[in-house]
Structures are given as structure tokens and as C-alpha cells.
TrEMBL record:
<dbReference type="InterPro" id="IPR046237">
    <property type="entry name" value="DUF6270"/>
</dbReference>
<dbReference type="Pfam" id="PF19786">
    <property type="entry name" value="DUF6270"/>
</dbReference>
<protein>
    <recommendedName>
        <fullName>Teichoic acid biosynthesis protein</fullName>
    </recommendedName>
</protein>
């Protein structure tokens, strides 16, 4: 249903608009709402509704739209299209117009947005569009203690009475320059006369949470705040002519072994590398092998208190890596000599094995960072595998690309076993067990799939049942939804996975985290959540459901911090039903291209958004393996499969050519026939 507005009044003193609607029916309430679309994620979030005050006058409804409400809730840094509606006998009523209406603009020179009414397809729409500003670097001076910045701001709004913040934002990965994780903001003062900013940063105040890996790129940005909202963030521009002046590396006086390196990017933005400088502080002086052990002798540049040799398992994280598992050994000191003998019988720390594991060596000491164990040229490592752990594994001592010591483990040959019954939890792991010719017609000869739980977030699964869930899934809301998709959504709401798992008694469970990589979470209340799956998004339920908050991937660090609490609970409970060694993690993966019907390789759009998904997927996988380190893994990262328009599931960045599914089943058969130690 719809009703037609006939006038718009503007009250500059009260800073509000009033919409006049003839009283042609009884309206119980009015509200303003907008839908937010994430184009890179290809998700339309559910409508956010805000109630509006109204009264009746001369057979009209007069609806008050406060500027403060629009300003507070408009999308920060993006244009927001507000629509208006009401409810009559619990039925939604949209407010339209019979052509454009006249209106006056609110005079708001200090506001961070411009506001105007538009009438696309006769729908009454209030546009909140961010005003533009730019910021450029005029000078930068750095030493071991301070960084002194000078900026110049050009803005379409008055700068007086606005708060400004200088932001350092760490890229998720150097290549993903539009996506950030850790951030730190510093209040700065801006001159309202000439738009100049002078700010001195104590380098000791830089947050050590930025020091995640060896690729800590921090971009510099500026944003403004007023009483209602926050502006978009603008990158600080620096000309290529300033490059020589700006490019400088300093070692921080109050943060030992830490450097800050300023530079100008190819797109003329001010950026920094913030890194630990640990190379060659701990060195391998001698390495020998006996039939029973490996023998190490060490050299340290500085005195180290109670040093230990630590091995950390290297896990891929997009184009970098991270460590989530470790094992350590005490180092013996005799006079000025440091040494360690590692028994081959007890070297490998886990019960099971992932293909081509690399464990990097570090030296740990009280009050010091972990130093990588450097291998100088005079120390020779033989390129041959050694049998360890009673012949269960093979190990290769090796130098990394940075000449640091590492062990590479491989599985020793073993006798086959059997495994058949399978439960699948995930959204991209079922396809290899389909029996169409494109997939695996003989899959059922090897695996009986007891049940599949799709489109369910780890978060949703571990929350309480929503008391009103039985009324959520009415047939009217799912008239155009496939029955299987509706069933998956209902399973997500029922939270009965572990009950079904206990009844199934599977030999193996196959997991993937794709849903948590891609889909938001609807928190219905403080204790109950629902996965905002494609099914829910496409249903009529999406705009009717009442929820307290929506957890999205716009801030991946915040999503990860909330997710891992529930993921750990899920995995710990999962181990009560299935031993770690019978849990298989499908690491999944993405592709940037597909082959079309004419055999042409076509790249997908939003390459960086896909790469960011892969980066985040790697993070989730690494956390999962830190909780269940003895789980088995399927990882086809190095095989570079592409997508295909022939795929019966359709082509996408997470579906692949036919060979992928054949290889997946072969890998599953191999894992099922490999005995557990």
C-alpha cells in the first residue's frame, strides 16, 4: 500500500522538516528508514527503521523529521537515501508523491552533510550526502622520539567548532589498501581561519597492537566530528615531489627493536611501515645430527635471560603468514656457550599432520620479543629428510627466504584404514559429494553424508533459541524461496546441530567457515542470533524481522573478536562428539577468474574485495586450527583452480572447475584411509 505526501515544510529554527500526508486511512505509526547496500560484498542489509512523531491537523497527518535524527543515523562517509512509511493494521504503507514537491534547504554551514529531497519513481526520498574535504601534507619531520606533522585542509563546511582526529589504520594486507584492521586515533586541533593543522606525535604512544606481522602498513587519514555524526575518512595526500623529504626510517627510542618508516604510495598517499627489527639478533652457530637427535649451538648478540628455543607453525594468511601454535624447549648454558639437544623421538608436537607443515624457529627470553633464529652462511643444512617420532613423520631442516631456521614436516608412508559416515557443517563443502557428472557420481561408494548444516554461522549456532522463531518462517515470507534453502534457515534458528550430530554418530565431520567469511549476523536480542543468510536476505522476512543489532564485516577486526568467542565454544563442544583427528577442516578458497561458455578466461569484478575475503578466511581457519590443532586439513591453495560457467551451481569466486571436486573427493578418501596416531 502507499499514500501520497502533498507538502514539505522546513523549520530552520527547530532544524526539522514536516511532511504533510492527507488522512485517507488510519495510520498507527510513521517511521523513517533506509537500506544499506554493501556493493563489494553484494549484500543488501535489512532496513533500519526509526519512529517519527506525528499529529493530526485539518484531516492531515503532519510528520516531524528532526535533522538530528537524520544526522545521527545516516551512513558515515556515504550517501544515505532515507524513505518514509507507516503502519496501518500492521500493514506497511509507503509514502510516495504525485510528482516533485517544493522544499527549502536547511541552512547548516557547519554540518558534515548536505540534505535534499528527491522523488525517484515518485518515492519520497531524503538524501543525506557527505560534504567534501581534502587534506594534504605540507611537512613531516621524524626522529627517534617524535613525528611532527603539518597538514592543510580544504573543506565544503566550516571548520570552527569541529573536532578532528588523525587516524593511523593498519591495512589487513599491503595489497588490500581499502581494508583496515587495527586503528588508533589522535585528537588534533585545526585552525578555522586557514585550515592548517600542526601536530606532534610521541612515537611511544603508537599502539603495539599494530605490530601483527612483517607487513604492517599504516595509512594516515583525517576525519571530523560534530555533535551528531562523524565524517568520512580522507587519506592524507602527499605529492611525489615530497617523496625524498618524507621517505625516512627511524628506530623508536622507547620501543626497542621497532622501526617506523614513512613513505609516499603510488597513489600519492602518506603511509608508514611499523615493524619489529629482529633479524640476526639470535644466530645458529652450529647444527649437527645424530641417529637419535638434532644438536644446536647458539650465538646471541645480547645477554638473554633463560633463553628457550621456540618452534611456531607457519599458517598462510593471504600473501603473508601468522603463527597460532607453538612448542618450546629449554636451552642449556655452560659458561658462555648455549646449546640444545632435541630428541627425534619426541620432536613433532601434534598427533596428526597437515601437508608440508613449516615450523619456524625463534629464541625466546624474558622481557624480549621472540627473535627469529638466523642461519649464517658458514652453517650448512643438508637438504635431506630425517625420520622422527618413531618413523611417523619426516623432517627437513631448512633456511627460509630470510635465512632463518625452519623445520618442514612430511607424513611418512602408512597403512590404510577405513571411514565412511560423514556430517558436513559449512556452505561450500557439500558439492564434492553430489552425484551429477560434473562432481562425483561414485561419491556414495566412499561416503554416506548423514546430514548437512548450511548457511549457519558459528555465532548463531552457539546462541539461544529465539522464543518467537516459530512465527518467523511463515509461508508468506518464503513464497519464492527454494524449500531446501528455507529448511537451512529453519535449522539455523532451531540450534539443534549437536542433537542431530549425536544421533548421526559420524566417523568424520567436515567443516568450512565460508558463512562466517561472507554473511552478517542478526542479533535478535542479547542472547539469540540468526545468520543473515542469502535466504533471509531474499525473503520478505528481512525487512519485517525485529532485531537489536547487525554484526557485519565492515570492521573485520570487530567481527573476528566477537566471532572467535563463539567459535571456540563451538569447537570445544564439537570435540565432545568427534575426536580432533576425525574433524576435517576444508580451508576452502577463492578464484579471481572463471572460464565462460566460449572458453575465454574472464576476471571477476571487485578483485580486492575477493582477496580480502580470502585474507579473512585464512584468519578464521588459523584460529580454528589453534583450537583444534590435530584436526585434518584439506588445502588446495597452491593448485590455483579457476571457476567455470559449466558448474551446475553457477560460477562464482567460491565455486570451481570440475577438477577441483574430483581432487577434493580423492583427498577425502586419502584422509579417511590414513590411520590416526
Amino acid at each position: 500500500m502507499k499514500i501520497l505526501a502533498n507538502k514539505i515544510y522546513t523549520d530552520s529554527a527547530k532544524k526539522e522538516w514536516t511532511i504533510s500526508v492527507p488522512k485517507e486511512m488510519i495510520i498507527d505509526e510513521f517511521f523513517a528508514f533506509f537500506k544499506k547496500e554493501n556493493e563489494t560484498e553484494e549484500i543488501i542489509y535489512p532496513a533500519l527503521n526509526y519512529k517519527l512523531l506525528f499529529h493530526e491537523e485539518e484531516n492531515h497527518y503532519l510528520i516531524t523529521v528532526p535533522h538530528e535524527l537524520i544526522a545521527q543515523h545516516s551512513i558515515s562517509g556515504a550517501t544515505t537515501s532515507w524513505h518514509f512509511g507507516g503502519k496501518a493494521n500492521d500493514q506497511f504503507v509507503s509514502i510516495h508523491t504525485d510528482g516533485p514537491l517544493q522544499f527549502k534547504t536547511l541552512p547548516l554551514p557547519k554540518d558534515l552533510y548536505n540534505y535534499r529531497f528527491e522523488f525517484p519513481e515518485a518515492v519520497l526520498t531524503l538524501i543525506a550526502e557527505p560534504k567534501k574535504f581534502s587534506v594534504s601534507l605540507t611537512d613531516l619531520a621524524m626522529d627517534e622520539e617524535m613525528a611532527k606533522f603539518n597538514f592543510k585542509v580544504e573543506a565544503d563546511f566550516e571548520l570552527s567548532e569541529l573536532d578532528a582526529e588523525l587516524i593511523f589504520a593498519r591495512r589487513a594486507n599491503p595489497h588490500l589498501y581499502l581494508y583496515f584492521e587495527q586503528e588508533q586515533a589522535f585528537p588534533v586541533t585545526i585552525s578555522s581561519k586557514d585550515g592548517k593543522i600542526e601536530y606532534t606525535l610521541r612515537l611511544a604512544d603508537l599502539d603495539t597492537n599494530f605490530l601483527v606481522d612483517n607487513s604492517n602498513n599504516m595509512d594516515a587519514l583525517l576525519r571530523f566530528k560534530n555533535d551528531w555524526h562523524t565524517s568520512k575518512r580522507e587519506f592524507i595526500q602527499a605529492s611525489q615531489a615530497q617523496k625524498k623529504q618524507i621517505d625516512k626510517k627511524v628506530f623508536l627510542k622507547e620501543k626497542p627493536f621497532t622501526s617506523l618508516d614513512a613513505y609516499v604510495t603510488g597513489s600519492s598517499r602518506l603511509s608508514f611501515y611499523f615493524r619489529k627489527e629482529l633479524q640476526k639478533e639470535a644466530q645458529l652457530a652450529e647444527f649437527q645430527e645424530t641417529p637419535e637427535s638434532f644438536q644446536f649451538r647458539f650465538f646471541f648478540k645480547n645477554h638473554l635471560e633463560a633463553p628457550r628455543l621456540v618452534f611456531k607453525r607457519r599458517n598462510k594468511k593471504f600473501r603473508t603468514s601468522e603463527y597460532t601454535l607453538k612448542t618450546e624447549f629449554a636451552i642449556k648454558k655452560k659458561f658462555q656457550s648455549y646449546s640444545l639437544e632435541l630428541s627425534k623421538e619426541h620432536l613433532y608436537p601434534l598427533q596428526t599432520y597437515q601437508p608440508n607443515e613449516d615450523w619456524d624457529a625463534f629464541i625466546r627470553s624474558e622481557g624480549m620479543p621472540d627473535f627469529p633464529l638466523f642461519v649464517p652462511n658458514q652453517v650448512t643444512l643438508k637438504s635431506e629428510y630425517h625420520s622422527v617420532d618413531g618413523g611417523k613423520y619426516l623432517v627437513l631442516p631448512q633456511k627460509t627466504a630470510l635465512s632463518n631456521f625452519s623445520f618442514q614436516f612430511r607424513k611418512a608412508p602408512s597403512k590404510p584404514g577405513t571411514a565412511k559416515k560423514l556430517v558436513i557443517f559449512g556452505s561450500v563443502s557439500e558439492a564434492p559429494f553430489r552425484t551429477e557428472p560434473y562432481f562425483n557420481p561414485d561419491a556414495r561408494s566412499f561416503f554416506e553424508v548423514a546430514f548437512v548444516q548450511k548457511d549457519t554461522s558459528f555465532i548463531s549456532l552457539m546462541t539461544e533459541k529465539y522464543p518467537a522463531r516459530t512465527t518467523l518462517f511463515s509461508s508468506a515470507d518464503f513464497t519464492e524461496i527454494d524449500p531446501t534453502d528455507r529448511e537451512n534457515a529453519e535449522r539455523d534458528a532451531e540450534k539443534d546441530f549437536f542433537l542431530k550430530l549425536r544421533l548421526a554418530e559420524p566417523d568424520y565431520i567436515l567443516l568450512d567457515a565460508f558463512t562466517d567469511v561472507t554473511r552478517p549476523i542478526l542479533w535478535l536480542n542479547q542472547h539469540a542470533a540468526l545468520t543473515y543468510s542469502k535466504t533471509i536476505e531474499a525473503s520478505r522476512l528481512a525487512d519485517k524481522i525485529m532485531f537489536e543489532r547487525l554484526l557485519t564485516h565492515e570492521n573485520t577486526e570487530a567481527f573476528f573478536e566477537e566471532w572467535r568467542k563463539y567459535a571456540k565454544e563451538f569447537l570445544e563442544q564439537l570435540k565432545e562428539f568427534v575426536p580432533e583427528e576425525r574433524i576435517i577442516l576444508n580451508k576452502g578458497g577463492t578464484t579471481l577468474n572463471y572460464v565462460d561458455a566460449n572458453g575465454k578466461v574472464v576476471p571477476y569484478k571487485n578483485k580486492m574485495a575477493i582477496e580480502m575475503k580470502q585474507y579473512f578466511w585464512d584468519r578464521l581457519n588459523n584460529f580454528i586450527l589453534s583450537v583444534i590443532p590435530n584436526a585434518r586439513v584439506i588445502d588446495f591453495d597452491v593448485k590455483n583452480y579457476t571457476g567455470s560457467s559449466k558448474n551446475p551451481l553457477g560460477h562464482s569466486y567460491a565455486t570451481f572447475e570440475e577438477a577441483y571436486y574430483k581432487d577434493f573427493l580423492k583427498e577425502m578418501i586419502y584422509l579417511a584411509e590414513t590411520p590416526k596416531h
